[in-house]
Protein: Glutamine--fructose-6-phosphate aminotransferase [isomerizing]
Organism: Candidatus Sungbacteria bacterium RIFCSPHIGHO2_02_FULL_51_29
Amino acid sequence: MCGIVGYIGARSALPILVDGIKSLEYRGYDSAGLALVTAQGVWSQRAVGRVINLEAKIGENRPESTLGLCHTRWATHGGVTEANAHPHTDCKRNIWLCHNGIIENFKELKDELKKTGHTFRSETDTEVIAHLIEEIRNKDNGLPFEEAVRVALMRLKGTYGIVALDRRDPKKLVAARNFSPLLLGLGKGEYIVASDASAVLKHTRDVVYLQDGDMAVLTPSSHTISDLKNNPRERTSIALDWSPEEAKKDGYPHFMLKEIFAQPEAIENSIRGRLIPKDGLAKLGGLAGMEEKLRVARRIIITACGTAYLAGRVGEYLFEEYASMPTRIDLASELRYRKPIFQEGDVMLVLSQSGETADTLAALAEAKQKGVLTLGIVNAVGSSIARETDAGVYQHIGPEIGVASTKAFTSQVAILALMTMLLGRSRDMSVVTGARIADDLQSIPNLIRKILQQSAHIKTIAKKYQKTKNFLYLGRKYNYPVALEGALKLKEISYAHAEGYSAGEMKHGPIAMIDKNFPSICVAPSDSVYEKNISNIQEVKARGGPVIAIATEGDKEIAELADDVIFIPPVREMLSPLLTVIPLQLFAYHFGVLRGHDVDKPRNLAKSVTVE
Ligand code: AGP
């Protein structure tokens, strides 16, 4: 996720900006840059890699300035290059800005601006904004800078957190937010604009969080906040009592909890601009040109590791049921050593949050070696897997910092649902079905928000079973992978023994383990296999086993049967993993914390397993 810091005031901007951007390094990035307004013009430096590379380029010649911007880039459009690093500027190098987010209509705006003579220096969507403001000021040079920014922002489709300046207005800094967080640090005779509070706490604890649609105009002594139609918006400041470390977690005790709670926005970011609900279609720019190959594919082989593999298991059900596509799911660490029989028309789909997992890379290489078309669903832009696959879809969820994967799982399942629509609608899925899936997918973030409100209830259940050493997780069909994922989460962060199992398989062995000290967590929403799940719950209860059920709101039968129930809202079966996994993530989180573990950095684990 990009990091932004802007400064306007009476002090030297440079050290405040660099120090601030260092506080944002934890967000993950691949390049950095800054721009300072000086008496001689704008002084700018950019560097690929870490902030220390930028500091090396700044060197000793540290110009005096009281107005500037600084940025760490998490690439979305355009490779990791100095030219693509922010800040970006216009033709005449008057307007400079940094941006976090995705401008969906940047290509049409860029073409429009090129026609009026603008020349571009980068591949980014961000640079278009600087030229758009320039074009607006060219047409009406009496227009104040902030008004030109306002007009430009109204042309944008997509998300932004932006801070901008015009060297011809050296007493002004403009900040605006639409989905990408941005706050104002209120200092004495100065303001620090930043992506999160960790970059401002050294200077002030008084902050104003901008809301979507806000635009702030800052001078060293004042600020105003309004909407894009210049209607004033009241935003009260709050006094933060966080440490810088807590600020990085947005006040959450752990990154894992922050990321569990970030899943509604993560899914919104993963599906944003990728649905055409009225036509029941999904559009995935990263797969442009692959549609026909996918439509006629003989089989899709999904492969990944860990949680990504379990998201892929959901994809197997989706592709078969809703795209009538023969699909096989394989652990990458197994596929790479087997003798997989690839045939004409096979397509491999790899999933990876980090894009650097060794086993997944090896399985990918094996498929490429055999001439198989390879696609990816990856979060880390420009990562090895993103580069090695023939095409792919980025998750756009920002870095996942907690070692135990949470938002990456739901994002991958959401993107698999988009791919299912893309595939299905090119084969035998009707527009009605496609449209219904699109509508249901768009409702998922708010349904997750509803489940997240049960965190305290789930913590109570975790406390009740705090001393338990063994758990069985049971699920069927779309929720069989969820049972496996729930068990993996518990193992990873609490080190307890948790076994995920197909509920239908329970009577073929695991039921022998069940007794009063061996609870079962049953994922049993109201779906096509509900009755079967009820039978499993009865079998467990008959043997004295406690049952924690994940069930659909209003299900009285399970409420009577199970010892504890966590309810989820009703949801279409194919999308139910996006909801049923949330209680399991929260249960594992609270259970791990109650056991006194560092849930962000569990023992023996790495965030990205780049070794075999
Ligand atoms: C999941 O919680 C684990 N951190 C781990 O299983 C992870 O999902 C796996 O290593 C795959 O990582 P990737 O998505 O970056 O390829």
